[in-house]
Amino acid sequence: MGKQSAVDELLQRIGQAFETLPRQLQNVASYLERERANIMVQRINEIAEGCEVHPSAVVRFAQRFGYSGFSEMQAVFRSDYTDTVTPARSYQQRIRKVIAEGEARMGPSHMALRFIDASRAGLAELAEHFDAKQFDAAVELLLKAENIYVVAVRRTFSIASYIVYALQHTHKRVHLVSGLGGMYREQIRSIGKNDVLIAISYPPYGKETLYCAKVAHQHKAKVLAITDSALGAVGRDANVMLMVNEGSAFAFRALTSTICLCQALFVALAYKLELKVEENPHPGEYDD
């Protein structure tokens, strides 16, 4: 299995217990997931205000998950800092950390093998925790959709580009919400109740992706989230969620599992569409 960060492990435990938590502690759980990149610098009063609870509820929440208090829980988020800061700065810090820890002496080919092993571990975890019901539901959403919109930003943008390319080999109407020229709002505003938005995002979640998901909900469209947590800002309100926890090496997360899942999604949809054509043949429908 791919090695998870301490924050990922904590959020996974929180997710498993979420339904059993009192409402106030659920508010804290949702806030931690949504603001995970900022928790390390926030004071307990700020977090309590953001959760709309008393500071004592934040302390109770930390104790519920085995910490002596808020400060000890916050230290977990602080140690995860290099994975959640501004991307350019984070990349530089992570490379310097590799050098400081002596990893640079491994040699390029050894480092490449570490990345391959991390990707392999991520794929093994994807298979082990594969949710067949959610995957089948995702295919059905796409099968029934009049239009399919796809949004992902920064490191996951390449995944969005791929799945749009693949889906365009079907007869579905597919739209990449690229934000070219800053036009996210214009590109997503036509989404309707018979459409589906595929939203791909991992912490820290892209504000553009969150905006598109919000508009999709407002317009009664369905949202298919590809993300790493059911508690996250993307997965929490999705109609269907496909969970992916990528493998990582040298504090850099791979994209192998996400692209594999998206390829499988396309193949499964194309297969269903072909079956539908065979059951209801229309001569010349696939002619150029």
UniProtKB/TrEMBL annotation:
Keyword check for Cell membrane: no
Xref: Pfam families: HTH_6, SIS
Coiled-coil blocks: none
CDD domains reported for this sequence: SIS_RpiR
InterPro entries referenced in this protein's UniProt entry, alphabetically: Homeodomain-like_sf, HTH_RpiR, RpiR-like, RpiR-like_SIS, SIS_dom, SIS_dom_sf, WH-like_DNA-bd_sf
Domain named SIS: residues: 138-283
Name of the protein: MurR/RpiR family transcriptional regulator
Organism: Dyella flava
Taxonomic lineage of the native organism: Bacteria, Pseudomonadati, Pseudomonadota, Gammaproteobacteria, Lysobacterales
Family matches, as PANTHER family: GLUCOKINASE, TRANSCRIPTIONAL REGULATOR
UniProt entry tagged with the keyword Transcription regulation: yes
Limits of the HTH rpiR-type domain: 8-84
Keywords: DNA-binding, Transcription, Transcription regulation
Domain of life where this protein originates: Bacteria
